[in-house]
């Protein structure tokens, strides 16, 4: 649609419209909202200061100054231009030609446009202070208004030689739209280019989800002016106006993704994207073009880790404004429906709980979006944090995705997008004076209350001081934060998941931790220094309790620093348990604690850095070269020694409860170190305790699961799973495999029963395993996985058998291809087995019955 109205024809049209044929203008343009192409009814593109029209690479043609003087209220004609070379070293923009010319206004000037069909309009303004001998554009200070809204207030580009692009979305209800440039006194205004283009009605409705607890519905988007702050194509490249249905620019998300280690980009062909056209929810390519929906970010390695973290993006925004946030979703990662559920958080507020795209769209690869409004009171940091993360439900795949983000600033009570002055120059913001006085009063009052409280607390602690004397070497330790202290922390330990009996056990262990003082107490600031203020780049891993960072202490020692996430009861319990366990234990095959910090309600544990990381990464999923069979046996022996020590070495037996390959760490010499004691329990030897079931999927002892009776044999079962993970080098739960293979423990038992287990051996080492060693190893593993705990060996027996397997291996390591022969009779050893409880008899139907139990256990704490 070409618009070359001069002022006269504009006037005639206006008259016609108002008095005679009010609907012709509107109907003459069919802007079909439901298609992918949209012909705007309003399309004014002006390259200000240019004497010739300008065509951009995307095909849009901007009119010259002479063609557009009819829109202007002024007769002054100051044009500024530069050669394109002078702009060459600025950052590239596809709109670069528009910045090469500018128009200067020394007095108030208005552009007036005729709007045939009122509705939403894009207003796009281009600014760049071109160098000029007679006018110093950098020194100009001016405001830009519409009839009702302030777009820019006292704007200037001094000390800023970047290209400035401002984009607004306004609802215009009149047939006339004005854009006013108002220079400050004795200053001038300038503009390089203007776009006034209508936006389809479908683009934005009047309502959004209000993000402030409790969630509500916000109505009135039509009534506010919006300024586009960010438009981000998550997981994909920059989309330039030429590739967008509405000439928008979408940036790549790289600068905003604050946890890139956990993110994985996914993309599919644009053609796969489906736009739903059902009557209740319409998404068309006008909402966002298919390249936005065809790329996304999902959680790194979701099938293997049972990940427990959020994907996070942070954008900086201005305080004191509300923002509209649109999030685009399209499930291009799932293989079938009903697999993906995740939560959406905005600034830490749960905005959607368990978003189920399958339910919303009824199909995969289908475009979907949601609008949120976050009020200024919830933007305290000058930033908006957008997160998606798995729900805590027992789903078989934990994952979360995001395809696109749009963030728009909303006009405030003064109808302004820049400050608190309305179009007539009146100040309409919060009253500064009364606000200041209120602030002073509040600060004074809270100071008084805080000092009183402090005095009270110090007095009480001083009274209690003798109770703790033996435990704390530091005379002033009664001043330390609450939960660093001996018997007071017992009360913190109580947890709704723990039965009273186990609570007693936990409290007991705290009371008997005489060497707590031998661990160093770190100040939080030291740990901040050691980790570059918990730099996300230093994250080594993410666990159930929080993130683990690599840190370097002031003395140069490298440590692993585990920082608790949040103050949830669960995290606190794990922190205290782990601190108590590790304070008592020292063993070559247990990870050793250097110290801890619990200042500022931060819970941080500091460990020796174990440089080769988790055993699992050396088995599969990473690029490390495969470990030999001997090495794997050595590592298993080390881990078994660590566990054996836990079960029998200390005065009370300790059950680890979360034995898995990610909790076996390898130091620089590949010496195994058992880690993560957050779920450990102390019990009296030979006893069993009743407790809520905790552990990791795939490693969990079925008997413990059913009876909730915890014994050392539960660790033995998990260790059995580890043994097969070591042999087969695959994840214990792998939902991408067929159902019967998904669970490693069930599958190997079945394979073993049918004498097919040798086919599952890690092919990289299969030919270097001594068959005798293999036989001992597999028999041991199978026994560890016995259904009944009494049939399982003790950790001491496990250790002995592993050493036996190791001896057999090193006696004749290279046995070539004899392995497959050796396992024609894989099963015979079991038939001759003197153990009266045959393993095979309990194998059938385990998968079915177990998965049933899984879904019915309410209090299971998956990790
Ligand atoms: C506009 O387009 C729609 C669908 O393409 C069509 O049904 C309608 O008749 C058109 N209206 C006009 C005025 O051309
Ligand atoms: C471009 O870069 C050169 C050298 O870096 C600098 O001297 C010149 O001022 C720059 N030009 C502009 C327009 O910024
Ligand atoms: C233009 O104005 C800016 C800001 O007032 C000032 O820093 C700069 O030196 C001026 N440039 C010229 C060429 O006068
Ligand atoms: C220049 O302005 C742009 C856009 O407003 C802003 O992002 C940038 O930080 C500014 N640069 C300086 C040096 O002020
Ligand atoms: C916004 O637009 C709608 C129609 O698109 C109109 O009914 C309404 O009056 C407008 N509101 C304002 C405040 O301009
Ligand atoms: C944008 O469109 C051009 C052709 O019009 C195409 O070559 C290019 O790949 C497109 N880019 C994206 C990101 O889709
Ligand atoms: C503000 O920042 C602090 C530290 O940078 C962070 O702990 C807090 O969660 C942030 N608050 C919001 C609402 O983002
Ligand atoms: C994800 O973020 C939300 C809000 O910041 C937080 O409440 C939640 O615990 C986080 N989830 C994980 C697994 O870290
Ligand atoms: C969000 O703002 C509301 C008031 O609008 C306030 O009650 C609530 O505490 C805020 N939430 C957060 C997390 O800041």
UniProtKB/TrEMBL annotation:
SMART domains: S_TKc. Keywords: ATP-binding, Glycoprotein, Kinase, Membrane, Nucleotide-binding, Serine/threonine-protein kinase, Signal, Transferase, Transmembrane, Transmembrane helix. The keyword ATP-binding applies. InterPro entries: Kinase-like_dom_sf, Malectin-like_Carb-bd_dom, Prot_kinase_dom, Protein_kinase_ATP_BS, Ser-Thr/Tyr_kinase_cat_dom, Ser/Thr_kinase_AS. The chain crosses the membrane at residues 439-460. ATP binds at residue 562. It comes from the Eukaryota. Residues 1-25 form the signal peptide. The keyword Glycoprotein applies. Residues 534-807 form the Protein kinase domain. It holds the Pfam family Malectin_like. It is a single-pass type I membrane protein. GO terms for molecular function: ATP binding; protein serine/threonine kinase activity. This is Protein kinase domain-containing protein. It comes from Vicia faba. The lineage of its organism: Eukaryota, Viridiplantae, Streptophyta, Embryophyta, Tracheophyta.
């Amino acid at each position: 649609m070409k618009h070359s109205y001069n002022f006269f024809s504009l006037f005639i049209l206006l008259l016609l419209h108002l008095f005679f044929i009010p609907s012709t203008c509107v109907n003459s343009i069919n802007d079909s909202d439901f298609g992918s192409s949209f012909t705007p009814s309003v399309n004014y593109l002006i390259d200000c200061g240019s004497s010739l029209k300008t065509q951009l690479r995307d095909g849009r043609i901007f009119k010259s100054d002479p063609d557009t003087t009819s829109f202007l209220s002024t007769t002054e004609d100051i044009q500024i231009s530069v050669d394109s070379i002078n702009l060459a070293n600025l950052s590239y923009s596809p709109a670069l030609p528009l910045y090469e010319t500018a128009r200067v206004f020394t007095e108030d000037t208005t552009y007036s446009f005729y709007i045939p069909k009122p509705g939403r309009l894009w207003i796009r303004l281009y600014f760049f202070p071109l160098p000029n001998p007679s006018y110093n554009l950098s020194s100009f200070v001016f405001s830009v208004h519409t009839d009702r809204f302030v777009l820019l207030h006292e704007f200037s580009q001094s000390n800023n030689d970047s290209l400035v692009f401002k984009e607004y979305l306004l609802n215009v209800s009149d047939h006339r739209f004005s854009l006013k440039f108002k220079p400050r006194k004795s200053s001038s205004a300038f503009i390089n280019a203007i776009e006034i283009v209508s936006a389809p009605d479908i683009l934005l409705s009047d309502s959004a989800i209000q993000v402030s607890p409790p969630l509500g519905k916000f109505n009135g988007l039509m009534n506010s002016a919006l300024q586009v702050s960010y438009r981000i194509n998550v997981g994909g490249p920059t989309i330039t106006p030429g590739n967008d249905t509405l000439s928008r620019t979408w940036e790549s998300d790289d600068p905003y993704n604050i946890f890139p280690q956990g993110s994985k980009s996914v993309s599919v062909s644009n053609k796969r994207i489906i736009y739903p056209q059902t009557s209740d929810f319409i998404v068309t390519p006008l909402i966002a073009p298919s390249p936005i929906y065809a790329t996304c970010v999902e959680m790194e390695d979701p099938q293997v880790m049972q990940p427990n973290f959020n994907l996070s993006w942070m954008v900086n925004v201005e305080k004191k404004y509300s923002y509209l946030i649109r999030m685009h979703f399209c499930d291009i990662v799932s293989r079938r429906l009903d697999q993906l559920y995740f939560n959406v958080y905005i600034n830490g507020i749960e905005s959607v709980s368990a978003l189920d795209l399958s339910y919303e769209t009824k199909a995969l690869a289908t475009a979907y979006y949601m609008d949120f409004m976050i009020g200024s009171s919830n933007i305290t940091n000058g930033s908006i944090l957008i997160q998606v993360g798995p729900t805590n439900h027992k789903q078989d795949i934990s994952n979360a995705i995001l395809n696109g983000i749009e963030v728009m600033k909303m006009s405030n009570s003064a109808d302004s997008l820049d400050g608190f002055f309305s179009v007539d120059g009146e100040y309409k913001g919060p009253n500064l004076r009364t606000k200041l006085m209120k602030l002073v009063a509040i600060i004074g009052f809270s100071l008084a209350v805080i000092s009183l409280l402090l005095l009270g607390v110090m007095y009480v602690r001083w009274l209690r001081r003798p109770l703790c004397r033996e435990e704390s070497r530091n005379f002033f330790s009664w001043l330390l934060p609450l939960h660093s202290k001996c018997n007071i922390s017992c009360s913190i330990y109580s947890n709704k998941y723990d039965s009273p009996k186990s609570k007693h056990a936990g409290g007991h262990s705290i009371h008997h931790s005489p060497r707590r003082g031998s661990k160093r107490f770190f100040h939080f600031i030291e740990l901040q220094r050691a980790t570059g203020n918990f730099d996300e780049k230093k994250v080594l891993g993410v666990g159930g309790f929080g993130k683990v960072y690599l840190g370097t202490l002031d003395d140069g020692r490298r440590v692993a620093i585990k920082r608790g996430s949040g103050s949830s009861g669960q995290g606190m319990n794990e922190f205290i348990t782990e601190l108590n366990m590790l304070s008592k234990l020292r063993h070559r095959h247990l990870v050793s604690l250097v110290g801890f910090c619990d200042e500022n309600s931060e819970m941080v544990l500091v460990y020796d850095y174990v440089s080769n990381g988790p055993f699992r990464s050396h088995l599969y999923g990473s690029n490390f070269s495969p470990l030999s069979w001997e090495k794997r046996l050595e590592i298993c022996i080390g881990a078994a020694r660590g566990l054996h020590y836990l079960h029998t070495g200390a005065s009370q037996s300790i059950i680890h409860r979360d034995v898995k390959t990610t909790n076996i760490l390898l130091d620089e010499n590949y010496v195994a170190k058992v880690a993560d004691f957050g779920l450990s329990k102390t019990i009296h030897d030979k006893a069993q305790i009743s407790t809520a079931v905790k552990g990791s999927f795939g490693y969990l002892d079925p008997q413990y699961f059913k009876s909730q009776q915890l014994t050392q044999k539960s660790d033995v079962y998990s260790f059995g799973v580890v043994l097969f993970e070591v042999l087969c080098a695959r994840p214990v739960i792998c939902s991408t495999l067929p159902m019967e293979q998904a669970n490693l423990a069930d599958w190997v038992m079945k394979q073993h029963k049918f004498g097919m287990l040798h086919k599952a051996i890690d092919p990289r080492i299969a030919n270097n395993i001594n068959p005798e060693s293999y036989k001992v190893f597999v028999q041991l593993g199978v026994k560890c996985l016995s259904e009944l705990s009494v049939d399982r060996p003790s950790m001491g027996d496990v250790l002995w058998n592993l050493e036996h397997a190791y001896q057999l291996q090193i006696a004749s390591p290279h046995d070539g291809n004899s392995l497959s022969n050796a396992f024609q009779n894989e099963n015979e050893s079991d038939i001759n087995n003197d153990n009266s409880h045959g393993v095979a008899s309990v194998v059938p139907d385990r998968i079915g019955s177990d998965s049933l139990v899984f879904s019915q256990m309410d209090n299971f704490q998956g990790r």
